[in-house]
Structures are given as structure tokens and as C-alpha cells.
Amino acid sequence: MRLFTAVIFDDEIKDSLCGVMEKLRRLTDKGSFTLRENLHLTLNFIGETDKENLVMDAMKKAVSLADAKAFELTFAGFGRFRRSEGDICWIGVEKNGQLIRLQKELADCLTDVGFVLEDREYKPHLTLARRVKFKDKFNQKEFEAYVPRMTQRVSRISLMKSEHIKGKLTYTEIFYVDLQ
């Protein structure tokens, strides 16, 4: 089973993000846009495993160790990671100490039980699209001004399963831990 931990969004945030993606789509020649139901903020990518119980235990322990309480998360700005096969487009996440502390504690707890995670600094962002090729007149600063600030209350973290169902990438929440 392919797993990751995440913050999932409420319908209002998903609607706002879809509005941004629709405008972005009109400025591109091609790209693979994230499905509305798959929009999320990744905390830790775990990968293929059949040890979901270890992940669940690590999630509970991390929330306790971080003394994690519900918090507000704000999304703003637009960026892209340039790739030869097409860019990855994203919306930024404003600095949030609670998010960083929770993600790090979770990464440590997952590592302690044997999972090998990416060894790089956590830079939270919401992926809107991959393999994007822009039309000639794309102005990133102009587009960024269009992206609204969005805020969501985060009251739990989720364990997500990633799979292809009938040719469609599908993310399913299989477990969650409420924040204290």
C-alpha cells in the first residue's frame, strides 16, 4: 500500500484552489492538474508498506509529543519548480511553527519505527499541477497577484492511501488523529 501523511482540506479551500487551477489552466498549453478530491498538504511521504499500524502508532505518538493543538494555516503566493518535462506549480504555505513542529515530530516518530523518509528540509506547499508548459506570455508575478490568501483550521492529521482506481489516481483517508 502506498501511504503518506497529510492535512486534508475543507470544501471551501478546495473550491478556492479549483478556481486558481482553472485560471492557471487557461494560461497553459499542457499540464496534469490535481483533482479536486486529491488536494492536500503532504506532511510525510512514506511510500509502499504493509505496516500501516506502525504509521498509525507513530502519528498518535507524534501528536502527543508535539502537544499538537488545532491551528490556523494560511496559503498564499504562487511558485513553480522548473523541470525539463514541465513545471510543478504550487501555492505556498505561510510559515507556521506548529505545522513545522508537528511534521518534524511525525518524521522522527516514523524514522524511529524504521521508515526511511526523504532527507531534506520540509517546505510545505500545495501542488496544483505537474508537467505544466506555459503559453508564451505567462507572467508569474501577475498570476501570483490573482491567488487569494486562504486560511483553514487544521484539527487533525490524516493517513492517506494512494492508488489508481480505473485509471484514476485516488487518495483515500484511512486513518486520522485529532489534534488535542
Automatic annotation (TrEMBL):
Keyword Hydrolase: yes
Key words, A-Z: Hydrolase
UniProt-listed InterPro entries: Cyclic_Pdiesterase, RNA_CPDase
Domain of life: Bacteria
Motif (HXTX 2): 125-128
Enzyme type, top EC level: hydrolase
Coiled-coil residue spans: none
Reaction catalyzed: a 3'-end 2',3'-cyclophospho-ribonucleotide-RNA + H2O = a 3'-end 2'-phospho-ribonucleotide-RNA + H(+)
Active site: 40, 125
Function in brief: Hydrolyzes RNA 2',3'-cyclic phosphodiester to an RNA 2'-phosphomonoester.
NCBIfam families linked to this entry: 2_5_ligase
Family stated for the protein in its record: Belongs to the 2H phosphoesterase superfamily. ThpR family.
The name this protein goes by in its record: RNA 2',3'-cyclic phosphodiesterase
Protein species of origin: Herbinix hemicellulosilytica
